[in-house]
Amino acid sequence: MLKDYHDVLTPKDIQKILGISVNHAYELVNSGQFHVVRIGRLFRISKTVFLRWLKGQ
C-alpha cells in the first residue's frame, strides 16, 4: 500500500492513506503528533516518521 508513495509524504498523501478529508489531514499535520517539515506553505512528512506514528496509534 505505502510502496506506491514517495519517501516524503504530503497532507494529500496522508488523506488518501488514512481515508480522511483533506481538512482533517491538515489538522493532523498541524497537531504536532509527528514531525513535519514546512517549506513556505508546503508541508512534508517523512514516510518513516509517519509509519512509526501510524504503528503507535
Describe the structure.
This protein is an alpha+beta fold. It has one domain (about 1-55): Arc Repressor Mutant, subunit A (Orthogonal Bundle). The chain is about 45% helix and about 20% strand. The protein has three helices and three strands, in the order E-H-H-E-E-H. It has a three-stranded antiparallel β-sheet with strand order 1-3-2. Strand 2 (about 35-40) and strand 3 (about 40-45) form a beta hairpin. Helix 1 crosses helix 2. The longest helix has 10 residues, at about 45-55. It is globular and about 30 Å long. The mean pLDDT is about 95.
Largest beta sheet: strand ordering: 1-3-2
Q: What percentage of amino acids are in beta strands?
A: 15-25%
Mean pLDDT: 95
**Helix-strand pattern:** EHHEEH
Class of secondary structure makeup: alpha+beta
Helix fraction bin: 40-55%
What's the Cα radius of gyration? 10 Å
CATH architecture term: Orthogonal Bundle
Query: What can be said about the biggest beta sheet?
Result: 3 strands, antiparallel
Say what the CATH topology is. Answer: Arc Repressor Mutant, subunit A
Pfam families: HTH_17
Organism: Brevibacillus antibioticus
GO molecular function, one term: DNA binding
Domain Helix-turn-helix: 8-57
